[in-house]
Design brief:
This protein has two domains: about 40-200, Galactose-binding domain-like (Jelly Rolls, Sandwich); about 205-315, Sandwich (Immunoglobulin-like). It contains one helix and 19 strands. By secondary structure, the protein is mainly β. The radius of gyration is 20 Å and the shape is elongated.
Length: about 325
């Protein structure tokens, strides 16, 4: 089946870079400490996301220089932001905050604003600026996205990134700069938020097939047919429309039924089995693509095969 969105509003933000994996394989971390379930609803997990507090706490700044990363140099809002780079006197610097993600989180979404400015002498190698998830010992688990200084456009842009795979874990969210000689490019970060929406119950093992069907599928580029990695499909509870769920800019636990994230082959599998005989609305988002808001996007009929397979095509955002 295809996710049907014909005649519906299809919107998307500014195009952004495609998330890339870490440049080196991370060390195998110790098993993460599980975190407890919390009551249903959506919670903001980041403290001091606008960097406005008199002290940087709970952000931790890692730099060998005497200049603090958090300062008043170029905020998007308020009086402060985090300024990474701007120097070639050290190769690596970063700022991080430790977070505990609820065990029953159905959706964990990072949003932040960033501004990239190139400042070089001659033709140096790129500086690279990244949003990274690590364990709380500092072992990198994944690079959510990365920006090269040569691609700077000197505009404040917002990134929206899915971190639901880390539900139930204690993690370290970091923004990092890898510098190069004669490259003093700047990367500013502001208005960071991590929204976790919970069901009110611990994450459960999927029920047996008699209780519903597995839903899998692929998400591809409509122009090239190539798979889209890191795309997220949110399936809403029956009776909830995509347009209504998106109206306030977030998906609440009372609206979300299940979700899935694509791998490098564009393949996804929903976390939960879905009941038969229902019509479902869905929202699909991917970095650099127009979001899809599909009211009544697909139907699972009583006699449909298990698993149900969906195909989704997305258009680039320009």
């Amino acid at each position: 089946a295809s996710l049907q969105a014909e005649g519906l509003a299809t919107t998307g933000g500014a195009a952004g870079p495609t998330p890339i994996p870490p440049t080196s394989a991370p060390r195998a971390p110790a098993a993460p400490t599980p975190t407890p379930a919390v009551s249903a609803g959506c919670n903001q997990l980041i403290a001091n996301g606008g960097f406005e507090s008199a002290r940087s706490h709970p952000w931790v700044e890692i730099t060998a220089l005497q200049v603090p990363i958090i300062g008043a140099d170029f905020p998007r809002t308020g009086q402060k932001s985090a300024w990474l780079g701007g120097t070639d006197e050290e190769a690596f610097q970063y700022i991080y905050q430790d977070l505990s993600l609820p065990a029953n989180a159905k959706a964990v979404v990072l949003t932040y604003w960033h501004y990239l400015e190139e400042e070089v002498s001659g033709k140096p190698a790129d500086a690279t600026f990244s949003a990274v998830v690590a364990d709380q010992q500092g072992n990198v688990l994944t690079t959510l996205e990365s920006f090269a200084s040569s691609k700077a456009d000197q505009q404040w842009k917002q990134s929206t990134l899915d971190m639901s795979q880390f539900a139930g874990k204690k993690i370290r969210l970091a923004f990092a700069a890898s510098m190069a000689p004669k490259n003093k490019s700047n990367f500013f970060v502001d208005d960071v938020a991590v929204q976790a929406c919970t069901s009110g119950n611990p994450v459960a093992t999927p029920p047996p097939s008699g209780a519903g069907v597995k839903v899998t599928g692929t998400i591809t580029d409509s122009a090239t047919g190539k798979p889209i990695a890191g795309a997220v499909i949110y399936v809403l509870k029956p009776g909830v429309t995509a347009s209504a769920a998106a109206a306030d800019g977030q998906i609440s636990a009372s609206e979300l039924l299940s979700q899935g994230t694509t791998d490098r082959n564009g393949y996804f599998e929903l976390k939960d089995r879905l009941p038969r005989g229902k019509v479902y609305s869905a929202i699909v988002v991917a970095q650099g693509y127009r979001a899809i808001y599909a009211d009544g996007g697909f139907e699972i009929k009583p006699n449909d095969a298990d698993p149900v397979k969906l195909t989704v095509e997305m258009q680039k955002s320009f």
